[in-house]
Write a structure and sequence with these properties.
Blueprint (H helix, E strand, L loop, with lengths): L4 H4 L12 H4 L4 H8 L5 E4 L6 H12 L2 E6 L5 H14 L2 E6 L6 H13 L2 E7 L3 H4 L2 H4 L3 E4 L5 H13 L10 E3 L1 H10 L4 H14 L8 E3 L1 H8 L11 H15 L3 H13 L3 H16 L4 H17 L5 H13 L5 H14 L60 H18 L1
Parallel strand pairs: 1-4, 1-5, 2-3, 3-4, 6-7
Helix pairs in contact: 5-6, 9-10, 9-11, 10-12, 11-12, 13-14, 13-15, 14-17, 15-16, 15-17, 16-17
Family: Belongs to the AAA ATPase family. RarA/MGS1/WRNIP1 subfamily.
Protein name: Replication-associated recombination protein A
Keywords: ATP-binding, Nucleotide-binding
Length: 424
């Protein structure tokens, strides 16, 4: 039986990995490890289909080390012993241990000394937060890297490769994948490349050729093979982003019913990732300091939604959407940081005042570092007038508070009172 397309298209070298360029791109940490052949054990965590196995496979392929795959939940200590014996006989083995968060103590105790010696390069894969779900003894011997859902552009690149590859992919078929089908395939799978490739393979192999011998894969075929409706993608691919834009603008404009409508489009399309990402952006960009508690509750709702998954995820998200819609709004925090970034990018910064420089090392006093620093807690009300900005921009003002909501009104009063005291 032939392996699924997603399995066959796994990269064999680091340069072929799609996505996760912050880890495997030129000059990035995993790429550097591979180039130097100085591998260390690691844990990769993130959603399904985002490339954890692909990274492990590519690391092994690029370094020419043997590559083995086990599952911490279903494979036994004896399976680990077989891998360990192989490593002793032939040298280093790269072991991908899936579901590493389910590693029991017996297997863990067997693995730990092998990790210490470097006999086995362990690459643990998990969808769970390793800082919570993985034993500290394992964490302390590994580096932890987070992988993220792939972008639509990443998925389109992988799909194009699969359609052209005659040896491992679908290159032996003459396929015409329409633009709207490609757009939907790359967005409706929520950054899960495995789902996209396997859906593509089903579409190609289950669609008869036309009279010219070409397999026509259009939007309706992809919808059927993915079992999702195209509610957030249209023929030119713009509607996916239009729905997200309309969702944010509806919350910004305090229209509860419109926001729930656009959220429902994303939910029905199965696009939970786009919905929760956008909701977090909205909370801090559009509500912000006018209602910080609403932002915190939005984060909690997103966390609950991730754990629940669809369809139950719709319930905490609806709570957050309604509250954000009806909350006072303020973008002052976003504007403030953008103002500060604009100054820095334009080169408007100067020397850090001597009294603010690090003084926790021998010889700092000779350089004048920290000598005139006034410790605010030594003064009444834990405040003292002191310059913090460099001389060049000492009068800069980035934050311009608003009066929307009780919290930011109070912050505004405090901010203006402190500025007056600084300028006296």
């Amino acid at each position: 039986m032939q392996q699924p397309l997603a399995y066959r298209m796994r990269p064999t070298k680091i340069e072929d990995i799609v996505g996760q360029q912050d880890l495997v791109g030129p000059g990035k940490i995993i790429n550097r490890m591979v180039k130097a052949k100085m591998l260390s054990s690691m844990i990769l965590y993130g959603p399904p289909g985002t490339g954890k196995t692909s990274i492990a496979s590519a690391i092994a392929g690029s370094t020419k080390y043997a590559f083995r795959v086990l599952n911490a939940a279903t494979d036994t200590k004896k399976d680990l012993q077989i891998v360990a014996e192989e490593a002793k006989m032939s040298g280093t083995v790269v072991l991908l241990l899936d579901e590493i968060h389910r590693l029991d103590k017996t297997k863990q105790d067997f693995l730990l000394p092998l990790l210490e010696k470097g006999t086995i390069i362990l690459i643990g894969a998990t969808t769970e937060n390793p800082y919570i779900s993985i034993n500290p003894a394992v964490r302390s011997r590994t580096q932890i890297f987070q992988v993220h859902p792939l972008s639509p552009q990443d998925i389109q690149l992988a799909v194009q490769r699969a359609l052209k590859d005659k040896k491992r992919g679908l290159g032996q078929f003459q396929v015409h994948l329409t633009d709207d089908a490609m757009d939907f395939l790359s967005t409706a799978t929520n950054g899960d490349l495995r789902s996209a490739l396997n859906g593509l393979e089903l579409a190609v192999k289950s669609t008869p050729k036309d009279r010219h011998g070409i397999i026509q894969v259009d939007l309706s075929v992809i919808e059927e093979c993915l079992q999702r409706q195209s509610l957030s993608a249209d023929k030119n691919g713009d509607a996916h982003y239009d729905v997200i834009s309309a969702f944010q603008k509806s919350i910004r404009g305090s229209d509860v019913d419109a926001a729930l409508h656009y959220a429902s489009r994303l939910i029905e399309a199965g696009d939970l990732i786009s919905l929760i990402r956008r909701l977090l952006v909205i909370a801090y960009e559009d509500v912000g300091l006018a209602n910080p508690a609403a932002c915190e509750r939005a984060v909690s709702a997103v966390s609950a939604a991730k754990q629940l998954g669809l369809p139950e995820a719709r319930i905490p998200l609806a709570n957050a959407i309604i509250e954000l819609c009806l909350s006072p709004k303020s973008n002052s925090a976003m504007t403030a940081i953008d103002n500060a970034l604009s100054d820095v990018k334009a080169g408007h910064y100067g020397e850090i005042p001597l009294w603010l420089k690090d003084a926790h090392y021998k010889g700092a006093k000779k350089l004048g570092h920290g000598v005139e620093y006034k410790y605010p807690h030594d003064f009444p009300n834990d405040w003292v007038k002191q310059q913090y900005l460099p001389d060049k921009i000492k009068n800069a003002q980035y934050y311009h508070p608003k009066d929307n909501g009780k919290i930011e009104k109070a912050l505004k009063e405090q901010y203006l009172r402190l500025r007056r005291s600084f300028n006296q």
